[in-house]
Design brief:
By secondary structure, the chain is an alpha+beta fold. The protein contains three helices and nine strands; from the N terminus they run H-E-E-E-E-E-H-E-E-E-E-H.
């Protein structure tokens, strides 16, 4: 004799189904909200002649960039403003550039201009037995007037450069931030460099 088994759904089963549907809907809405916030949380800058498309934090202020292809500052970062800047120097095909020489020249120039400048470390990117494809260099100096509009103590400033050749340009991406803000700023800066199609 065969026993017929019927699938009886209780009110509790139906409630569980609706609960799952509700959780999925909330998760989708949250994902959409996070994506919208992330896109709205940046502004874009393009300099086609230098091959640059950059996304920087929304609310940061574009600075005077006579010596730079790009420069922005965080207005909410204390007396010494956290700054991103990018230099794009067109290369002369007749004179090959050495990244090591470019980093050394930059360090010597800063040592002449900045108080207590010191190069802390250099990290090369690429194969060990070849010339580096890029160089990260970290340094420190003292800014004697971090805010020119008010009396303030000197600030210890940390800097991080990413130097690389791409196409016909030598690029130097720079982060400078006060010692207190540097660790947090470095994470965002590395993402900024990577988002521009560099990094490593």
């Amino acid at each position: 004799m065969m026993t017929l088994v019927t699938n009886v759904r209780t009110r509790r089963d139906r409630l569980a189904d609706w609960l799952v549907i509700g959780v999925v809907a909330v998760a989708l809405l949250l994902g959409w909200g996070v994506k919208t916030w992330a896109v709205a949380g940046t502004e874009s800058f393009t300099r086609p002649e230098a091959g640059l498309t950059l996304n920087y934090p929304s609310g940061w202020l574009m600075g005077s960039a006579e010596d730079y292809a790009f420069k922005v500052r965080d207005p909410n970062s204390g007396p010494f403003k956290t700054t991103y800047q990018v230099m794009a120097d067109e290369l002369d095909p007749a004179r090959p550039v050495s990244l090591v020489d470019a980093v050394n020249a930059s360090s010597l120039s800063r040592a002449r201009k900045l108080t207590a400048f010191r190069l802390l470390d250099i990290e090369t990117v690429g194969e060990e037995d070849q010339s580096p494809s890029a160089i990260w260099s970290r340094y420190v100096y003292v800014e004697e007037k971090p805010d020119p509009f008010r009396e303030s103590l000197p600030a210890v400033v940390l800097g991080l450069d990413y130097t690389a050749v791409k196409g016909e340009y030598l690029y130097t991406f720079t982060l400078v931030a006060s010692e207190a803000n540097f660790d947090e700023a470095e994470e965002g800066f590395r993402a900024f460099v990577g988002d521009a199609g560099f990094g490593g």
